[in-house]
């Protein structure tokens, strides 16, 4: 197990749950729940899992699924906020395509499918990340990167399923995906917003929007 939380670096970590495959721990400061880091897949095994996904650009069901994030994200942006990065876009960057269709200038980045350094060398009016943050081994690293990528008053839009309590977590199908290793509570996102000077709202069960405050 990690000696500190992989998100907020707090040292007070408690056992939270275990199943036949791995143990899970909870940070007592930010409430992130994370799988035992000694149980992780290799990068090759992880990519093999992602290669099985069937997320096609012409799939209307996938488009409808992503609209749960794209609609509130677009409504939160001003007309001048037109540059965006889809972070963790996967092999089929449909969200970036949808946002481009809405008039936004999009870049994409993914460690396996679009690892182009230039995409991380500028600042954006918004960053989106759909169904990827739960895969992060050290989410503090990506969070810090996002802080650097965001312009003043920029929006960070995330989609991931949130856990609610210990009893429901133990029977939660979402944790059974071997690539899902970091799990967020609403309190986790509220902690990050308060610490790093964002407003935060939750327009859907699996969606969270952060807006960077002026400092």
Radius of gyration: 17 Å
Count of runs of 4 or more consecutive helical residues: 6
Note the run of SSEs as H and E: EEEHHEHEEHEHEHEE
Estimate the global geometry from the Cα principal axes.
Answer: globular
Proper CATH architecture: 3-Layer(aba) Sandwich
**CATH-assigned homologous superfamily:** Vaccinia Virus protein VP39
How many angstroms separate the termini?
A: 37 Å
Structural class: alpha/beta
Strand content: 25-35%
The average pLDDT is 94
In total, how many domains does the architecture comprise? 1
Low-confidence stretches: none
Per the CATH scheme, the topology name is Rossmann fold
- Largest β-sheet summary: 6 strands, mixed
What is the number of E strands?
10
Protein name: Class I SAM-dependent methyltransferase
GO molecular function, one term: methyltransferase activity
InterPro entries: SAM-dependent_MTases_sf
Keywords: Methyltransferase, Transferase
Give an account of the 3D structure.
The chain is α/β, with parallel strands linked by helices and 215 residues long. It has one domain (13-36, 81-212): Rossmann fold. The chain is 28% helix and 26% strand. It contains six helices and ten strands, in the order βββααβαββαβαβαββ. The protein has helices spanning 43-50, 60-76, 94-101, 139-149, 166-170, 186-196, and strands at residues 13-18, 23-27, 33-35, 83-87, 105-109, 124-130, 150-159, 182-183, 198-204, 207-212. The strands form two sheets. The protein has a six-stranded mixed sheet, sandwiched between helices. A four-stranded antiparallel sheet has the order 1-2-3-8. Helix 2 (60-76) packs across helix 3 (94-101).
């Amino acid at each position: 197990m990690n000696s500190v939380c992989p998100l907020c670096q707090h040292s007070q970590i408690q056992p939270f749950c275990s199943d036949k495959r791995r143990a899970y721990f909870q940070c007592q400061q930010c409430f992130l729940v994370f799988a035992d880091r000694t149980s992780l897949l290799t990068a090759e095994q992880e990519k093999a899992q992602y290669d099985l996904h069937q997320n096609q650009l012409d799939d209307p069901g996938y488009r409808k699924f992503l609209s749960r994030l794209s609609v509130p994200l677009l409504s939160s942006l001003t007309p001048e906020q037109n540059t965006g990065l889809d972070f963790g876009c996967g092999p089929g960057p449909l969200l970036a395509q949808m946002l481009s269709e809405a008039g936004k200038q999009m870049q994409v980045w993914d460690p396996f499918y679009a690892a182009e350094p230039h995409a991380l060398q500028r600042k954006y009016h918004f960053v989106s990340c759909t169904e990827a943050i739960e895969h992060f081994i050290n989410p503090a690293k990506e969070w810090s990167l996002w802080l650097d990528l965001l312009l003043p008053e920029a929006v960070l839009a995330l989609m991931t399923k949130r856990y609610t309590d210990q009893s429901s977590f133990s029977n939660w199908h979402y944790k059974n995906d071997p690539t899902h290793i970091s799990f967020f509570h609403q309190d986790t996102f509220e902690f990050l917003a308060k610490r790093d000077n964002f407003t935060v709202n939750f327009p859907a069960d699996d969606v969270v929007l952060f807006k960077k405050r002026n400092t």
